[in-house]
């Protein structure tokens, strides 16, 4: 083999590598006719991509196709001294064929103008119909819905389970029509409302949700709304997803939204107490015969609890180095339903009662059980003076 051929072989080996690395080949090495012929090729054949799709992918693709047209970008505007500026971006979803859209109360709170942007690009002026700070839910309405923006169905919370695959669709950081996937990480969480109360039965998920997802739907694989994305757990003040997000459950959406549409507000029932769940040091301090229940620490004045003569703590005892408030009533049942934690009372009142309704509390006081009837009142925005 002559020297010229050996050089040609070396160049043949080197040139493809340089092209794969996106490096330029010096001009002096490619002007020789023999080498130039290397790049003469027939017409490229089209690459055949796999058409096979997994069952899970097929479900997600179909879910997005059906649900995304019903998810909107909610843009709010503030009027500051006659100047109207954009103040925030959130999400929402179509609730009914009358153009009602569900979102978070904190998304539209204080807004002077609201717009809803649909997946087809249409932007519509929206009217604020009602908002409820206790559940962080709100309703806005547009006059005409795009043809493919159909109402989403609310799921049955009894069919929601930890480990279930869920999907969030919304506008994180303003990026419209974004789908993320995860699971239900936990159920029965209590998360802060926009008032001093909590939202019970909330759903925890690891589906990535970020600022802008608020108000959008958390969906099961059937495309049913199991919750309204509302909050994320943050670290070091960074407003980004850390794998712990929370959604307001469909059970509360079902109760609150119809009232917001009809009346612009929702009246929550309340008893008028604060407290916590029975714990070992309290059992020891009060010599309790029970290990579970809700402990009343404080009874607020001019409330159903005060009218019913419920008792809060009246003394403190040092137990194992801890100051334990003692003397309050222990609630063990409400209308015959067992009370295991303090949150059980809030959940029962939320899902089963209205202001003006009576409930019967089974109370452990001074070592004896008694039933106390309480007439519920409308919950104030904040119970503390």
CATH class of the largest domain: Mainly Beta
Give start-end ranges of low-pLDDT stretches.
Answer: 1-45
| Elements, N to C (H/E) | HHHEEEHEEEEEEEEEHEEHEHEEEEHEEE
**Which fold name corresponds to the CATH topology of the largest domain?**
Thrombin, subunit H
Mean pLDDT: 87
Shape: elongated
Q: Order of strands across the widest beta sheet?
A: 1-2-3-6-5-4
Find the structural class using helix and strand composition. Answer: alpha+beta
Report on the structure:
The protein has three domains: 3-39, no CATH class; 46-266, Thrombin, subunit H; 269-378, PDZ domain (Pdz3 Domain). The model is unreliable at 1-45 (pLDDT under 50). Strand 10 and strand 11 (225-232) form a beta hairpin. With 385 residues, it is of the alpha+beta class. The chain is built from eight helices and 22 strands. The strands form five sheets. Strands 1-2-3-6-5-4 form a six-stranded antiparallel β-barrel.
Characterize this entry briefly:
With 385 residues, this protein is an alpha+beta fold.
Provide the descriptors you would attach to this structure in a database record.
385 residues, alpha+beta, Thrombin, subunit H, Pdz3 Domain, 3 domains, six-stranded antiparallel barrel, six-stranded antiparallel beta barrel, 22 strands
Topology of this protein?
Elements: H1 3-20, H2 33-36, H3 55-67, E1 71-80, E2 83-94, E3 100-104, H4 105-108, E4 113-117, E5 123-132, E6 137-141, E7 165-170, E8 178-192, E9 198-205, E10 217-219, E11 225-232, E12 245-249, H5 250-263, E13 269-270, E14 273-277, H6 280-286, E15 294-299, H7 304-307, E16 315-319, E17 322-326, E18 330-334, E19 337-338, H8 342-352, E20 358-365, E21 368-375, E22 377-378
Antiparallel strand pairs: 1-2, 1-4, 2-3, 3-6, 4-5, 5-6, 7-8, 7-10, 8-9, 9-12, 10-11, 11-12, 13-22, 14-15, 15-18, 16-17, 18-19, 18-20, 20-21
